Structures are given as C-alpha cells and as structure tokens.
Amino acid sequence: MGTTESPLQSAGGSALRVLTKPWVDRVLAAVAMVPFVRSVYLSVSHHNIHMNIPSVLFVASMLVIIGTTLFRKAPVRVTPNPWFWTLAFVATYWGFLTWRMHNGGRQVAPVLIVNIIAVLGTTIVLWGRFSLGRSIGFVPAQRDIVVHGAYRFVRHPIYTGLFLGLLADCLSHGSPRNFLIDGLCVFWFVIKSLVEETFLKNDPAYAAYLRRVRWHWFPGVI
Predict the structure, then answer these.
(1) In terms of pLDDT, which residue wins out, 6 or 133?
(2) What angle do helix axes 34-46 and 82-97 make, rounded to 10 degrees?
C-alpha cells in the first residue's frame, strides 16, 4: 500500500524546490548581502583617511564575500530543517547582531602579532572562498562538492580563517565581554560545520571526501 504526502509536506517540498531555482537563489543572495554591503560602507566612511591593516583586511574579505555570493551557483537541494536555517542565520549575522555589544578592551598582544594573525586569517578566508568558486551559501545546501584548493587540507577552511580573525580581535581588544561574544561566534560556527557535514554526507562524493580529509579546521589538530 503506497503512502501519500500530507498537504503540509507537499507545500514544504514545493517551497524547497523553489529555492533551487537560479533566480530565486540570486534574489535571496542579494537580500542576504545587505548587512555586508552596509558594513563595508560604514567601515570605509569611518576610516576613509587612516585605514589600518585590520580595517583593510576586513573590507577586502567583505567585498569577496559579497561578490562570490551574488554570483553563486544555484543549489541542487536545500536543507528542510528549520533549526539548521536558524543556526545559519545566527552564525552568519552574529557579528552584525553583537557589534554594538563589544567594548574597547585592551591590547593583550603586540600589534605585530595581531596583524600577522589577522593577515593569516584573511588569507585563509580568501583562499577558501576562491577554492569554493560559485559553490557558496550560508544555509546548508548542496551545490558542487569542492575537494581542491584549501579543502584538500581541512573541511572548513573559511571558518579556520574566521577563527583566526576572531583571535586577532580578542588580542587587540581583550575584555571578558569580547571574549564571550567572540567565543560564542566560534561555537556557532563549530556547530554549523558539523550540521553542514551531516547534511552533505548523504552525497557519496562528500562522504568519500570526509573519509579522506579528517581535519575540520586545523590540520593535525582538530
């Protein structure tokens, strides 16, 4: 005896299929980039005379995020799990949501060390972004399975670079409040990493990739 879909299941399936249409995905990408565009505008307008290294790196990485996301490839499938969507939203926009909660803190490491970590983090983020090409998204979704470039070494190189950037921020503006905010950001992206793997490993190619590349964020460490 066959099974039939309930109206709710049918509607949910139709909505997810709509999300795989290229024009719908492009509209969603444009809307998702609004906070990033605003952040770049504010950074440039506030530092248009004296741009320090962290500010320049921030603007550069934001521009790459905006550009690659707007022209990303439409997904083959998108997660139907509402908790995964919520997690993706919180992790992606955590920095924007908590921006005004940060305080000045104090410098807890030499500027040279902070700048080296910031440059390294941004370099890894950009390497990961360019390795992904057009297979970029915030909500767990299957586009192309990428196994080259930065992804030969760790499963989530963009998050690796993000974590280093957060470390540089903590060393430059050290305070219990800032440590907590940045620590929670790391936590969201750690969980997001595991969620993305859970969703994508149903694809045999990605399952094989997980067996081949063991490290999540830092080679030989974790």
Answers:
(1) 133
(2) 10
State the residue for tokens 């969603």.
Answer: 28
Domain coverage including residue 145: 76-212
Q: Which residues contact 170 (CB under 8 A, 6 or more apart)?
A: 108, 178, 179, 182
Residue 16 lies inside a defined structural domain of this protein: no
For residue 2, is it within any domain? Answer: no
Residue type for 149, please?
A: G
Across the range 60-86, mean pLDDT stands at: 93
Contact 109, 152 (CB under 8 A): no
In a domain, 13, yes or no: no
Instruction: Render pLDDT for 138-179 as a digit per residue (tens, 0 to 9).
Output: 999 999 999 999 999 999 999 999 999 999 999 999 999 999
For the chain, the domain total comes to 1
Q: Is residue 195 part of a domain?
A: yes
Which residues face 141 on adjacent strands? Answer: 78
pLDDT for residue 12: 53
Q: What is the pLDDT of residues 10-55, one digit of tens each?
A: 445 666 789 999 999 999 999 999 999 998 888 887 655 455 777 7
Q: How far apart are CA 166 and CA 217, in angstroms?
A: 14
- Give every CB contact of residue 72 below 8 A, 6+ residues apart in sequence: 25, 29, 134, 135, 136, 137, 143
The secondary structure of residue 78, as a DSSP letter, is E
Max Cα separation, the chain? 72
Q: Which amino acid is it at 116?
A: I
